[in-house]
Structures are given as structure tokens and as C-alpha cells.
Amino acid sequence: MNMTQWLLEGDPAIRWQVMRDLQHMPPEDFAAERAQVEREGWGARLLALEDDDGLWAGGAYSPFPYDNDEPGQPWTATMHTLQTLQILGLDPQSESARKASTLVAENGRWEHDGQRYFAGEVEECINGRTVESGAYFGIDMAPLVARLLSERMSDGGWNCESENGAVVSSFDSTINVLDGLLEFERATGGSTAVSDARRGAEEYLLERRLFRGRRSGKVVQPKYLNFGFPYYWHYDVLRALDYFRKADAERDPRMAEAVEVVRSKRRPDGRWLLDHIYPGRVHFDIEEAGQPSRWNTLRALRVLEWWERSEMAP
Q1: How does pLDDT run across 24-34, given as a tens digit for each residue?
Q2: What pLDDT, on the 0 to 100 scale, is given for residue 52?
Q3: Which of 10, 76, 82, 128 could bridge 57 with an S-S bond, Cβ 3.0-4.6 Å?
Q4: DSSP of the chain, one letter per residue?
Q5: Mean pLDDT of the chain
């Protein structure tokens, strides 16, 4: 089966992004399909689970109540659900999106110390993701962006363990902040300070070829070579490459090995598997681990097209 055809048989969230990213249709040609995210499939199911106060599962980062007695991390609270809705491409101008963002702004409080939701809390991973979803849904995230810029480490990235004494950046924290800053730039036009911070953090990843230690050259974590979805706060090379694609970055030879990792995981039938699901409570499974994944196939195909297009450019 043609891969585009197979992808177009999936959820509306997949279909409209195939139209945009693989078929390169203009926005007016995929707008109707994108609108279906609010009404059908995964997006509609998540929206139906929203509480009356606009939150999901009664909490910002963790469900409430929660006894912390389950394997993994629960993914049902507001942060993870908003991020998933953003990745699905829920139209930020839709009625559901406007309602959710308004109510979360009014009622959301972080478990850390009761901070207002879009003001963020103390961890850079959390704050980067909050900037990303907030900017996407039309919230003024400038104060939290300013905080993140002030917290960038000397090696160029971020580490959510900085409050506990970490002095070097981490892949996971850095990609979360990068995604947030990129979405903020898209929403506002950004600033020289934001652009400089992004470039410095990109260099942090590139110096490590997206998955290797800068000095040792060894794979930092084997899980960075496996692709889960939804990814929540987790890093992997497909997520990193998709960030560079979204940023319309120039092709850099230090990405080449990560691109080959993506290519190597393509099955003979042209699809990519969902390598794993991050353990923890979910509202429902979007896809099944170990099976062909429309999400990973879409993301891999658009990354490879971006890479090959830039490779062929004069």
C-alpha cells in the first residue's frame, strides 16, 4: 500500500498533517480536515474527558487524587493532555480550544506551590512544555520565556534538575524548552534573545550528534534511539529531528547519523513501528506498542523529506 494512502486512512489528526506536510496542500485545502480533530477521533475523545473547571484528571501535572502507587508516571493530567491536543493539531481558534485555555488559565494551579498554570513552576521541562502549549493556544507566555532564558546553562541547554544542583544540561530538558521557544517565536515573532537562546541550545544537541556524549562519543541513553508516542517530556532522535524540521533549520552534517537511525528503523513495508509506550496511566492508548505506527511513520517521512530536500538544494 502507498504510505500516503495508509496514513490518510487514520485519525483526522494524522490526515490533516499528511495533507500539510507530505502533500504540501495550502491551508485552505486541509482546514476542514483539521477541524475534525475537535469532533472525531483522538482529539474529540480527549476533549470529552475535560472536567467542568477546564482541567483534566483534577490536576496540572498529576491527577488528583493520586497515591503514587502505580508503575510509571500518570499522563492523564492537564499538562500532558494539552500537549497531546497540541500535537494532534487542535485548532487553537476552535471553540473547544478557547474554552480549555481560558478555564485552565483561571483554575489551573501547579502542585509544586500553587502557582497559576501559565505562570509555570520551577522545572525547566515543565516550563518549556507550558510555554509551548500556552503560546500555541494564544496565551501570553513572555514572562515564563524570560525566566527560561535566564536559566540557560553555560553549555547552551537546560536541565530540570538545576534546582537540585545539576550544572550541565540534559537532552530531555533542552528539547522541551526548544519546542517551547520555537512555538513562542511562531506566535509572537520572537526576539533576538529568544533566537540566540535557541541557536545555542541547538548547538548543544548538534555537538553531541543528537544522541552521543560530547567527549566520550558513546550513546548517552539507548532509549534515545527508540521512538515512543506520545513522547510527553521524553527525548529521542526522531523528536529532535522533527524539531529541526519545524524550525526550518539548515542541514547540518552532525545530524546525519541520527537521520540514518531513522532510516534504519523503516520496515520493508515502508512503515515505522511504535517502539514503546511510556509507562503510566493514560486516558486511552493512541497506538499499540510493537505495531505499525501512523504517528511515527508520518513524523519519520516528513523528517526524511526535509533532510533529503535540503541535501539536494544547491
Answers
A1: 999 999 999 99
A2: 97
A3: 76
A4: --HHHHHHTS-HHHHHHHHHHTS---HHHHHHHHHGGGTSHHHHHHHHT--TTS-BTTBSSS-SS--S-SSS----SHHHHHHHHHHHT--TTSHHHHHHHHHHHHH-B-TTT--BGGG--S-HHHHHHHHHHHHHTT---HHHHHHHHHT--TTSS--TTGGGT--S--HHHHHHHHHHHHHHHHHH---HHHHHHHHHHHHHHHHTTTTB-TTT-SBS-GGGGS-BSS-TT---HHHHHHHHHHTTPPP-GGGHHHHHHHHHT--TTS--B--B--SS--SS-SS-TTSB-HHHHHHHHHHHHHHHHHHH--
A5: 96
